Amino acid sequence: MTLGERLRSLRHAHGLTQLEACDRAGISEPTLVMAERDRCTPYRHTLGLIADAYGVEPHALLSGVALTERQRKRYRFLLLHRSEDA
What we know:
By secondary structure, the protein is an all-alpha fold. Helix content is 71%, strand content 0%. It has helices spanning 3-13, 18-25, 29-36, 44-54, 58-63, 69-85.
């Protein structure tokens, strides 16, 4: 399953239109449309916004595999420390 297919599947699972999903994530509609059609890969920040809107980790959007709790904690730790270095 591609990233676009996962995004579309999650949106449908939440019963959202593209516009509703964009409003929830705080992104533009063309961004989501292009991502769902696999015409672009959203920036990391945008993937994070989409993941938050759907209640999943960004890693799950990219890989299609949900993280264990330990992996989730490590991922968040790395993200926090990476943003402090920037």
